[in-house]
Amino acid sequence: MERQKFDKDPKEKEFVEKLVTLNRTAKTVKGGRRMSFAALTVVGDQKGRVGYGFGKANDVSEAIKKSVDRAKRNLVYMPMKNGTIPHEIIGKYKSSSVLLKPACSGTGIKAGGAVRAIMDAVGASDVISKSLGSSASVNVVRATFNAIQNLMDAKAVAAGRGKTLDELWG
pTM value? Predict the structure, then answer.
């Protein structure tokens, strides 16, 4: 007889989880140093949905688990066209700015660590990016999400103008 394998949760396989940063902080107390960890993760389904989360705990695995749970609660949709973004955009958060540019197929993801993790998780295959200003990974991630939320889908633009896609693009 063949044994069947049952997954605990079928939704677990749905998302790709990427750890962007893991910070360790130490607090000096009477008995010595007390370590604490902060994790920043990005979660995506590689079909256009992506989210980020930040979690803190006294244990590494618990911090990562918290951040993944928060990331799954904060999913946003990114419009894509042939594996790239529809237009050029700059996202800003505090002193971080992220420039995202569409690229022709075969270019790949030309981006730094935090932006690369987001693009891998969302499923984009060809994007060029440049991080400007502050390089703190939390701020770069938030600036990238600001850019993603401000991206315009061609269908939404056509509907807003009261035209069809053929009328808009000729």
Answer: 0.85
